[in-house]
Specification:
single chain, alpha+beta, 14 helices
């Protein structure tokens, strides 16, 4: 612990490195729970009229067949993407030609964050991945993109409650003794309400956004077709297989859309580390109150690492490192998305 404190002290003396460490700890995130009111997420919401539905696991051929029959919807989404991102790409090109990329990086990072938020879950996930990549972005740009981790727009609670009741098969008032009228936080795939069961236990209720599956699949369809087209230019794709990379990422993304799987993974993870790492707390999942698009879990009060006392950080980091070593070297079952928006419970 003393050695780690000494190393951190040395790192704080380097301005760039200090900024990087602050962003990795999420210190730049504000206390606000949602994105600014003027940033809206644009999702594709299509109710199938012919009985045909999208696959619930990643099947690129089935997705291509589904959207191939809906060229108007695809064209509308492409137009939407270009209209949102066109100004940013043009401004970036101007900055590059004028040699001003370094001067305008924060301004462009803010624009990029708002654009990714507007474009929906697939692009928000991409921004979250970039937010912890110091090899690709400057600390200042990382600071802005990290706001994608837990600062995205919420959606209408009436829509959320209708989805919850459809998923669980009965009115929310029959399931929860109390449920906050508005979400307490929102993320790329859903938003969370605080509630209490009739047994008195406090719970967190996560409800998936409507239109997520449609939006994600049409974006994957468009990007994948672009990747296939790029295969005609070997010099462009020599270092990376865009289609293969996309398919692997998309398969994991689809798994995130299944809250039953998420709850089961949390339960399995808790059992694997219970004996060796009692300091790591995993909220209990209420399987009987969980479906593919609704997750009910134990409510636990906690704080972000960025809010912890300096004297506690070393011990918490030690626990986190040991936890990851156990996952990687012992159980082989690990948390693969450790960005600052994720709520790790260490004590």
């Amino acid at each position: 612990s003393r050695q780690m404190r000494d190393v951190r002290s040395q790192m704080e003396e380097d301005e760039q490195l200090s900024s990087l460490m602050a962003s990795l700890r999420g210190r730049n995130l504000s206390d606000a729970d949602f994105a600014a009111d003027d940033v809206q997420m644009r999702l594709v919401d299509m109710t199938p009229t012919d009985g045909e539905e999208l696959p619930l696991v990643y099947e690129p051929d089935a997705i291509a067949e589904y959207w191939g029959r809906r060229p108007v919807a695809v064209a509308a989404r492409i137009t939407q993407l270009l209209s949102i991102a066109g100004g940013f790409l043009g401004g970036l090109a101007v900055d590059a030609l004028a040699g001003n990329l370094e001067k305008t990086q924060v301004k462009r990072a803010i624009q990029l964050r708002n654009i990714m938020t507007s474009l929906g879950p697939a692009y928000i996930k991409l921004g979250q991945a970039l937010s912890i990549r110091p090899d690709l972005l400057s600390p200042a740009a990382m600071n802005e993109l990290q706001k994608l981790c837990d600062k995205v727009p919420s959606y209408d609670s009436k829509v959320a409650m209708a989805l919850l009741e459809a998923e669980l098969g009965r009115p929310a008032s029959e399931i929860y003794a109390e449920l906050s009228p508005e979400p307490i936080a929102a993320a790329s795939l859903g938003q969370v309400y605080r509630g209490r069961l009739f047994t008195g236990e406090e719970v967190a209720v996560k409800v998936q956004r409507p239109g997520v599956l449609e939006t994600v699949t049409v974006d994957l369809y468009v990007i994948r077709r672009l990747g296939v087209a790029l295969r005609a230019f070997p010099t462009v794709t020599a270092r990376v297989d865009v289609v293969g990379l996309l398919d692997e990422w998309a398969a994991r993304f689809f798994e995130e859309l299944d809250y039953v799987r998420e709850g089961a993974n949390a339960t399995a993870f808790a059992a694997m580390i219970a004996d060796d790492l009692p300091q790591v707390v995993v909220p209990r999942t209420y399987a009987e109150l969980t479906s593919r698009r609704v997750l009910t879990a134990e409510w636990i009060e906690g704080e972000k690492l960025s809010q912890s006392q300096a004297d506690d950080v070393g011990a918490l980091v030690n626990v986190g490192v040991i936890c990851y070593l156990k996952q990687l070297l012992d159980t082989g079952f690990f948390h693969a998305d450790p960005h600052p928006g994720e709520q790790w419970l260490l004590r």
